[in-house]
Amino acid sequence: MNQIPEMKTHDFYYDLPEELIAQTPAEPRDSSRLMVLDRKTGEVSHHHFYDIVDFLMPGDCLIVNDSRVLPARLYGEKEETGAHVEFLLLTQREKDVWEVLCGPGRRAKPGAKFSFGGGLLHAEVLEIIEGGNRLARFTYEGNFYSILDKIGQMPLPHYITAELKDKERYQTVYSKEIGSAAAPTAGLHFTPELLEKVKTKGVKIGAVTLHVGLGTFRPVSVEKISEHKMHSEHYHLSAETAALIEETKKNGGRVIAVGTTSCRTLESVATREGKICESDGWTDIFIYPGYEFKVLDGLITNFHLPESTLVMLVSALAGRENILNAYKTAVEEKYRFFSFGDAMMII
Prior knowledge:
Elements: E1 33-37, E2 44-48, E3 61-65, E4 67-69, E5 73-78, E6 84-92, E7 97-103, E8 113-116, E9 121-128, E10 134-140, H1 144-151, E11 177-180, H2 192-200, E12 204-210, E13 233-237, H3 239-250, E14 255-258, H4 260-273, E15 279-283, E16 298-302, H5 309-318, H6 320-332, E17 343-346
Parallel strand pairs: 1-17, 3-12, 3-14, 4-11, 14-16
Antiparallel strand pairs: 1-2, 5-6, 5-8, 6-7, 7-10, 8-9, 9-10, 12-13, 13-15, 16-17
Helix pairs in contact: 5-6
């Protein structure tokens, strides 16, 4: 792998006016804008997301991430004092034991007990772990996820300050495997009707599961990007999807990932196993310029934060200059950025 350790975080900076950060999702989903970037020439063209069918060819396959976002933000009270507290569920450690982020932390010492949703859910802090997060055991009657659906809020990124009126708008229409702390947002643009048009054109659709962690929003705080430590996320690639990818490659079709999470899953498996096959595990793969892609032929993705690992990933695929030029054009053309923003297709 020909990586370039000299690259600096600031090499991936671009200037973004705050008013271009999308606060609400496009309505309907597929009416968002689509920039198509030719990764060989750097040329861009401007479309709507529903035009994506025109850039897919019979024999291609789309790989989507079917992870579903947990309504993981809980507001409650400390049982002893009634003081307000906020929990954010991060990772399930055992059946009813979760790693959580608590605010304010001083109220969440080991042994502290909390109540959420008027008593539908109770939690006791077991211990404080590395980084200041807590392990908490939850008690309840009935189904944990049904209670979360009833009382939990979507853990929207910090840059979205508008209230989300419909929780389903932060889920893809094909989401089914519960476990993400953030949406795989490239897939938010698809409607069931658009997916049918894609299939009618002769494009197969396969699914992987990667549960997105909040680490996806963690800024790169080191100067040399090679020193950045990626967060770890759980993925699953089924035998069925592996066979679809193998068949697509064998027949000369393109494998196009919907989102950086799908991309990271495919490249993680190919790196770990030496080929695409059924696989289940944790990945902390960090893709940046110099990385040689083993599976991907194209990527559908949103516009990412300056100096983020995601800008580095798309730069690895399309070239840093091409990406920064495309982003400059997107700012000039007033594209909408980040989770609820517009899309880019790199082919």
